[in-house]
Amino acid sequence: MHSTNNTEATxxxxxxxxxxxxxxxxxxxxxxxxQMSLLAHLLHPEDFGLMAMTIVILGFAHCFADMGLSNAIIxxxxxxxxxxxxxxxxxxxxxxxxxxVVLGSAYPASVFFNEPRIGALLRWSAPVFLIISFGQPxxxxxxxxxxxxxxxxxxxxxxxxxxxxxxxxxVNHVGVYALIAGHVSQAxxxxxxxxxxxxxxxxxxxxxxxxxxxxxxxxGAYQMGERSLNFLKTNVDKLLMGRLLGAGSLGFYTVPxxxxxxxxxxxxxxxxxxxFPLLSRVQNDDEKTGRGYLEMIExxxxxxxxxxxxxxxxxxxxxxxxxxxxxxxxxxxxxVIVFLGIxxxxxxxxxxxxxxxxxxxxxxxxxVYAFVLNALAVIIGSYWGLLGVCWAIxxxxxxxxxxxxFWITKRVANIQPIKLMMAILPSLILSLIMLSALLxxxxxxxxxxxxxxxxxxxxxxxxxxxxxxIFRKKYIKKTIQVLRS
Length: 485
Prior knowledge:
By secondary structure, the chain is mostly helical. The protein folds into two domains: 1-237, no CATH class; 245-485, no CATH class. It has 19 helices and no strands. The longest helix has 41 residues, at 2-42.
């Protein structure tokens, strides 16, 4: 009876965690989109390019900030108070080392990007690692205890505070430092809040024994390797574009890229959060694993393809309204990279599949392959400027990266490529019909940006819904039933 009660309590915490995590993800995404729009109207594209260069360095450093020990705390089911204290102080030491390394990287980063201002931005940002290292173990404990409400509230308050500070500073004409201050304050406030709430239940003692936590240090080292490689894979474009094209071009790329990728991060995070545990349950059954993965790809296709094709049609009024005057060079960039969003969305669930099948090694080598190809695409594309880089990245994804997914799914779950194509095809066909109709409708709309966006959104939603009701009624009913359950 006691075991049953514990199980029910755990389930309740898990469902509560999903609720609070979803609320945090949606709320912070809305805050970040609003922040990007307002600051784009107040700052110059070059400011966002400088920020992107700085974030590449800070983000890579963050991969090492806690030595991977936050996940080690969550992973280790039974952990003594002494071991926990050792992990805490090891994280503090790691934070101090990363702080010093970031300070030391200020001059080399300035030389690499050929941008003297980067050094000052890194020196202003480096102290954040001293502060967040105090909060990271507390956040890991909150996750371990499934207390996601505290984490969600800390993330929302941090995002809102960072937004407010950045906006106030931008209005007072401090340029890129408004972006830096907003980023740093968000991380600091979140760390302080989680430490404050969790410190009521646990505080570290003045004890450290690295030998006692050797196993967890090894676990953390692998985590750092995986994080750093994944970060480089997804940010090598910004790293090399900052070096080859400069802050201005990088600003015209990074802001529309964030606008493009936000729906993927929001929607796919919900799908993959559910996908990994569900696929893990049937990991030894090829048929069930394959069916589950195909259903996931069909769902991702269903919402991502019409969304991104709709964004393509709305590119001009969307960029003009959302970013404001001075951002016109971002319009052709957005029109190219918006199709990248479809392939990112469709490729994202592959991570859940390889992990569920116990093939993390395959995921590692896929990241290496993607990193090398993306780097080559940026270098080659840079000969044709900013738009050349965008086309090179998209073509690399279409012809070299995405096709690998067919081989991986066949290898790890015996999913035939034709079945994968058939899962994608219905949404692709209906989305292309919708796109064709919107291109015609757009010719007859007034030039006012808000009216164009509203009419295109309503028309696209109506057309795509009608097409699905006519041609995919069974799938719609099945999807609604699954979502309700």
